[in-house]
Amino acid sequence: MAGPGSFLLLSAAVFFGAFVSGLAGFAFSAVAGAILLHSLQPLEAVPLMMACSVGVQATNLWALRSSIRWKDSFVLILGGLLGVPLALWLLHNADARVFQQVFGATIAIYAGYMLFKPALGSLQPMNRGRTAIVGFGGGLIGGLTAMPGALPTIWCEMHGLPKTEQRGVVQPFIAAIQLASLAAMLARQDLSSKVIIDLALSIPALFAGTALGILAFRRINDALFRKMILGILLLSGVLLVV
Questions:
Q1: Quick check: 137 and 83 in contact, CB under 8 A?
Q2: What is the DSSP string of 73-128?
Q3: Which of 5, 33, 57, 155 is spaced 20 to 30 A from 80 at the CA atom?
Q4: Which residues contact residue 220 at a Cβ distance below 8 angstroms, ignoring those fewer than 6 apart?
């Protein structure tokens, strides 16, 4: 991006994406991508959003370090790492836009339905096999949309996890999958110098948005957090479709 107007557009996209991710723990790419995917090519926008998301997640992990559930998150990560190579292959060899639209419609329908239902309450402990499958799906989705956290977030919401426990499961997963995807792109020489420049320009907006989002997260209760998560999932789905 070049010029003051482009810089402001980049900063606005990153700031709002970082704020939502700091508040909800995910959806940076859904919010920022609504702007960036209309001004950048997917092979530029997706790695930029991944890199920004790593910065957000690093801040989130430090701020919420006492709540991290490493055991459950590790199972998710193992599954997710298996999905990343397939996702990057599809990004180059399939119509990623169609996948984004189908996935967006699916999570929008789910979130819209759940907004009108009461919370499910606490279910049985997470089954490791199913959690790994969810992780695989998250890794696959993350490589194509730069939004790996949506599916694990839905999984946690289905199990009725409180907001701090939910964040403790999802945050390490998102960070690991984004780092793995970026490493794979770097190995394939898919990261252009333009992505690095845009990342450097976005750093102030990235950390300002993240800090404000984490502050807001600490001030809301579990019931409001659930509604906000479902609302953000609904918005994320719609933004992926349009």
A1: yes
A2: HHHHHHHHHHHHHHHHHHHHHS-HHHHHHHHHHHHHHHHHHHHTS------SPPPH
A3: 33
A4: 163, 228
Question: How far is the C-alpha of 89 from the C-alpha of 191, rounded, in Å?
Answer: 15
User: Rounded distance, CA 30 to CA 229, Å?
Assistant: 13
Distance of CA 95 to the CA centre of its chain: 21
pLDDT in tens, 28-43: 877 887 778 777 777 7
| Predicted confidence (pLDDT) per residue in 136-151, tens digit | 999 988 877 777 888 8
Is-contact 111 237, C-beta < 8 A?
A: yes
Tokens of 165: 């426990």
Helices 163-187 and 42-63, axial angle in degrees (round to 10): 140
